[in-house]
Amino acid sequence: MGLARLLNVTVSGRPGAPALVFLHGFGCGQDMWRHVAPSFEDAFRVVLLDLPGSGNADASSYDPERHGTLAGYRDDVIRVLDELELTSVALVGHSVSAMISVLVQLARPDLVERLLLVTPSARYIDDGDYVGGFTAADIEDLLELMSRNHLGWQETLAGMVAGPDSPRVKDELERSFCRNRPEVAAQFAAVTFYGDNRADLPAVSVPTLVLQDREDLVAPMSAGRYVAQAIPGCQFEVIETRGHCPQLTAPVDTAAAIRRFLAPLTA
Question: What's the rounded Cα separation, in Å, for the pair 117 and 128?
């Protein structure tokens, strides 16, 4: 069984058109893109997948050792693109998948023509003058909560990710988080929140867009601006919404920003 099947890959849109690949964030699945991805089927070959341990990915696709770093997820995305015989794709990564997307581009420049990083953070923990939005103690408290209360952390994190204006999004995220195996969620959270990919950003070599929510408790404006300023020639656009998931809270504006950035691929 190929990895694409294990990761529940779905392909739609125009055969032979440029490929547009959407990656989801922590604790979610490809359905988080349901309000945005279909609008690109007229001009692109749209590809979605569930990361190992997430969504409807086969449980056997997750390996605690291999997925102990973002490199494991990077390699999975590369394998899927190779299986589908895709090159020069536009890669859209939300949250932690923004850094996974960066790592894919660095490892295999032939696979990625454009990067779209949605509410990215290269490091979630504050470090000197760098403001990632969390202290080390904040992250330790979150991971401790996840370890001692397998059914209690989802509401807290869902509220942070959804933002204060979107109770329906909060409920959806909480249900999504609850679907994850506790040990997988805890490890992926640690990999996500303890990660530091700042040194990788200057090596990005393709046109890149950062989409930043106006008010984001998970990846604040300072984190998004840092990513945009560290990547050569990166564009930066603010979505007027609150929370960490503009594809759910402002899907029309999110899709419009993506379409503007991708216009040269369909000209």
Answer: 24
State mean pLDDT over 175-198: 81
Q: How many angstroms from the chain centroid is the CA of residue 186? A: 17
Write out the catalytic residue numbers: 95, 216, 244
Which domain covers residue 157, as residue numbers?
Answer: 3-266
For residue 166, give both structure tokens: 């979107």
237: nearest Cα among 117, 157, 154, 136: 117
For 122-169, the pLDDT digits (tens) are 999 999 999 999 999 988 988 887 777 555 666 667 667 666 766 777
Structure tokens at 57: 């990915």
Identify the CA nearest to 77 among candidates 37, 41, 112: 112
Q: How far apart are CA 55 and CA 129, in angstroms?
A: 36
Give CA–CA dist 207/85, Å, rounded: 22
How many domains does the chain fold into?
Answer: 1
CA distance 51 to 28: 9
Spatial distance between the Cα atoms of 118 and 231, rounded to a whole number of angstroms:
14
| Length reported for the chain | 267
This prediction's pTM: 0.93
CATH of the domain at 193: 3.40.50.1820
Q: Could you tell me the two tokens for 132?
A: 């990632």
Dig out the tokens for 7 from the structure.
Answer: 């990761």
Q: For residue 179, count CB atoms less than 10 angstroms from its CB and return exposed for 0-12, middle for 13-18, buried for 19 or more.
A: middle
Six token digits for residue 197: 């990919």
pLDDT of residue 167: 75
